[in-house]
Amino acid sequence: MTQFLDLTLGGISTGAVYAAVALALVIIWRSTRVVNFAQGAMLMFTTFIALAVINKTSSYWLGFFVALASGLILGAVVERVLVRRVESGPPLAPVIVTLGLLIFLEALAGMIWGGNLRSFPPPFSIVGFKVGGTRYAFAPSDLFTVLSVLGLAVALFLVFRFTSLGLRMRATAFAPEVARLLGVRVGGMLTFGWALAAMAGSLAGLLIAPSVFVGPNQFDAVLVYGFVAAVVGGLDSPFGAVVGGIGLGLVLSYVSGYDSSSSVTLASLVVLMAVLMVRPNGLFSTSTTRRV
After folding, report:
1. Cα–Cα distance measured from residue 26 to residue 156, given in angstroms and rounded to the nearest whole number
2. Per the domain annotation, does 292 fall within a domain?
3. How far, in Å, CA of 118 to CA of 59, rounded?
4. Is residue 284 part of a domain?
């Protein structure tokens, strides 16, 4: 029973990180209709920036907020400098650009910080909570991870559903010409969408870094699982991203604990295929068509 609880709590904590990455992908999809395959490299880069600030100042929270601000800036620059130049071209062009950006950022990080893995400090204690006479594998740092992602998801839900900003972002994504005629600053909405998504990705990087260390290629698997979570939940659903991320985290935790860690990748593929066979647009998608 203790093992089951440990696996469940660990799966929720790890799944929350997948949910944060999925949320970043959902934000960009809802605001620009682009799948950003460079999300993992972008969050890796901002996590390196956070680590540099922490090492320089010995302040975790300064590095934390510098990373979030760096994510905002990086996302805005990527949209303005790269994506905007190809957004009117073939639908596949932005995807190719993000793949190129993935390779570029990973190479640049290796040139600046080297290829060695580096440890990243957790925000709080990593010693598990003790209930009765049993200590569980769920620590204050894990609780912070879960609450941070849930808070982000709630904030995004409120923005997209109940604010004029969210309405303008959705209008920009689905009908940019109509939105422009109605007075929406389409360019600004696209930039804001990318900046917001990059900030969400930066949060995911900060949360997962203490567990996987920091390296130029260290976050590729996190992006893959985050993408699976986003597709399973529905690329246009922030709620689906959270459910998909935590659900995937639980499944992979059980597979790793009861079978083998080598089966985790196969398990994620099985989950993805099973969901897409039943609900091709994702479990919580509200759209009936999708353009990649």
Report:
1. 10
2. no
3. 17
4. no
